[in-house]
Amino acid sequence: MQSQDKSGAAKLAKLGLMLALAVIMGYVELLIPISLGMPGIKAGFANIVILFVLYTFGFKEALMISALRTLIIAFLFTSPAMLLYSFTASVVSTAIMNVYKRKSCFSIYGISALGGVAHNITQFIVALIIAAFGNRNALGFMLSFYLPLLLLAGEAAGMINAVIVNGIMRRVGPPHQKGKDSLCTHT
Amino acid sequence: MKKADKILLTVITLSAVLILAGGFIYRSCCKRASAVEVWVSDEKMQSYPLDMDGVYEITTAEGHNTLKIEKGEARIIDADCPGGDCMKMKIDQNGGSIICLPHKLSIIPDRVAAEGTDAVTR
């Protein structure tokens, strides 16, 4: 994917492909009903594309694709009302993944899991703001039961995606940088 | 997988498990439910006994739900909310809750009413 051709057109074409792939991933996911008795728990396959773009192109590109992806999905397949959830969540999770990617101590596994968790927590907060404020019973249920499930689900989905992206990057990504495995230092 | 990754994953998992465990301990602590309370927003509307079978219509400003109590279990059998997630939840004497966020409706077990000996021996 990382060709020597630095012209804007080539990059634009690749990013367009990536965006199409991200939209399709989101659509495919809608077709697979993963029902664990809880709404909102899914694999987040679109994040495979976002992660890949984040690692091969950069933050700006990844942010653009995740934002456009949610817009397209909302208007084509789901409803624009869902944008409030999907748009904020994908933008926030991409931003958080970028922040932690810059710290050398996390590998793609940690970043991806963090992205999944950030995505879920953002949606959770949006849901709290929209629906549950002023409703004590729903609040207690959501905080004590739904929140930890979302944490675990985001983590698990993030790990699965990281394995996939790792496999893709080994084949078509930029050369892997082997860094020292040390805990985060202040930079 | 680096060291920081493992620490991060452990922290996320542990916090989730701790919150879950805390919630379960809090919910299952001693009391049994004998009735369900219907709350809309922050107001208690109705209370229905769990040991009496029945079908109840609940209408809020946002929409309509049908609550069914059968064999000590309360469920929503019909709702006009878009997701229908409330129909996947149930309440029995051990607890549980039914939440319909679009309708600002929550149905919770009435633990306060279950403090008598009847509830324990039943």
Quick summary of this structure?
The complex is a heterodimer of chains A (187) and B (122). With 187 residues, chain A is mostly helical.
Commentary on this structure:
The complex is a heterodimer of chains A (187) and B (122). Chain A has helices spanning 8-31, 46-56, 59-76, 83-102, 108-132, 136-172. By secondary structure, chain A is mostly helical. Chain A has a single domain, classed as Orthogonal Bundle (Arp2/3 complex 21 kDa subunit ARPC3). In chain A, α1 crosses α3 (59-76), α4 (83-102) packs antiparallel against α5 (108-132) and α5 runs antiparallel to α6. The mean pLDDT of chain A is 84. Chain B has 122 residues and is α+β, with helices and mostly antiparallel strands. Chain B has a five-stranded antiparallel sheet with strand order 3-4-5-6-7, with no helix packed on it. Residues 112-122 of chain B have low confidence and may be disordered. The chains are: A mainly alpha (187), B alpha+beta (122).
Secondary-structure element order of chain B, N to C: HEEEEEEEEEH
Give the radius of gyration of chain B: 18 Å
| Discrete helix count of chain B | 2
Number of strands of chain A: 0
Count the DSSP helices of chain A. 6
Instruction: Tell me the CATH superfamily of the largest domain in chain B.
Output: N-utilization substance G protein NusG, insert domain
Percent of residues in beta strands of chain B:
35-45%
Compute the number of strand runs of chain B: 9
Proportion in helices of chain A: over 70%
Main sheet attributes: strand count, strand direction, barrel closure of chain B: 5 strands, antiparallel
Q: Give the rounded overall mean pLDDT of chain A.
A: 84
Our count of domains of chain B comes out at 2
Counted up, domains of chain A total 1
